Amino acid sequence: MPLEAFATTARISPGWRGLSPPWRTAILRLVGAAFVLFALFARDWADMASHWWNISTYNHILLVPLILTWLVWQRGAELAKLQPSVWWPGLIPVTLAAFIWVLGAFSGLNLARQAGVVGMLAASVPLLAGPHVTKGLLFPLFYMVFLVPCGEELVTILQTVTAKITITLVHASGIPAAVDGVFIDTPAGLFEVAEACSGVKFLIAMVAFGTLMAHVCFVSWKRRAALLAACVAVPILANGVRAWGTIYAAQFVGVERAAGIDHIIYGWVFFGVVLGLIIALSWRFFDRPADDAFIDASRIAADPLLCRLRRYRMRAVPACAAFLAIVFGVQGWALAANRLSAPVPEELSLPAVPGWTRVDYRPKIWWEPRAEGAAHRLLGSYADEKGRRVEVFFAMYAAQTEGQEAGGFGQGALTPGTAWAWQSPGASVQAGHGEHLLAEGRVGRAALTWYRSGDLLTGSNTRLKLAAMADRLTLRERPTMLLIISAEDLGAHAGESITRAFVDAVGPVDAWMDRLGGLD
């Protein structure tokens, strides 16, 4: 498909005066619903806009509203031929989206909150404009998913994948190197595949672009699938090649000069190169004609399934009232849940552990987990007769709400902005989450993390959030506890054996945490 299709003027959207009275009324209903959603959930929209503007990973989303406007405009002339209607089954997706929002509000998961508000905005279309119009706007409604800033969850995986690709290329180029998690040691120095170098922002932007390109430039579903596969694979492989190029150059020009060159290349220049590569590989396979309409109104209007579905119409006033009841209802539910606060002891202390003695906290490099919003925080060290030392961090929360989440971003063993960086996953002990950290390229640390809520003992942040959701859905008050047991490495990941020995001395972790929190 020629690129002229992006600027085609063959089907101009009708102006306001060219619209039929039912369409004018439908647009006013949709604008009113959008106003309510923007006003009632202003905080969530503001958070999303802040991510788009301030976090480079999501800068590309600033273009998504313009793309959505263009997609609707391209369909305008055909949409005007359809008959909008108020459709009561549209209340089902509105309710589901509202429930997603309330789950996010209950768990402190911003991703769910933001997906919920975007979903409610999209779901207002089938409710207030009917099934035929929804079919005509199906792709733009789907494309609204790219308004939600997500993908940071892939950083750790992409760091590991990039490190594996890089070390393979480094060895293939004849450079002696060793990899430990996301750290690569070479004769020129130690390199880290940091979070900023994981390639996540280019992968997210490329998937958004590829989805648009697949819709606009292709008709064949096989070709669309092939393009999307390339939009996932090429950025990941290209990022590995870029990281290898930096390491390879460093062997000859030094680490500082190589890093300087990398900082010039790594950015939207790199994204532009990858984008150009994808377009160049796909160009000859474009199969949508330049004058091809995105939708066919006559075909949509005659669709027998849509005609049957259209029978489930309702009056506009009850539909709008039901919409308002849903969105105000979830706000009230969340407000009631936010007032929950379980009783916690006034004072807590670290107990004695058989075979271990409390000692002064003196790490080689300062390490202190973060637990914002916790009612209590304890940090101390234990040592045994063999000279082994462990650090114990315990936090207790009266509730899990915004700003006081045990599993929130930046909380726990790895605190952003410190000397410590994530290195690799570690072994699990009694359902705890294990990981290895490294500071200044020389001091390693093993850490085990547990969450405790009611009868739940887990190292999974996801399971903790599900438990928090269940508590707040039922308006149940109970505290949440966080325990981290950590030890510096004396050898190759020797910290794991030290933490395991301490856990063996503690006994069942769930019972020990209950005693720590005064719940036994």
From TrEMBL:
Membrane topology, as annotated: Multi-pass membrane protein
Domain Methanolan biosynthesis EpsI: 325-508
Chief localisation class: membrane
EC number of this enzyme: 3.4.22.-
Keyword Protease: yes
Enzyme class: hydrolase
Transmembrane segments: 26-43, 55-73, 85-103, 115-134, 200-218, 225-245, 265-286, 316-336
Localization of this protein: Cell membrane
Superkingdom of source: Bacteria
Entry annotated with the keyword Acetylation: no
Coiled coil: none
Record's keyword terms, sorted: Cell membrane, Hydrolase, Membrane, Protease, Transmembrane, Transmembrane helix
GO MF terms held by the record: hydrolase activity
Alphabetized InterPro entries for the sequence: EpsH-like, Exo/Archaeosortase_dom, Exosortase, Exosortase-1, Methanolan_biosynth_EpsI
Name assigned to this protein: Exosortase A
Organism per entry: Novosphingobium rhizovicinum
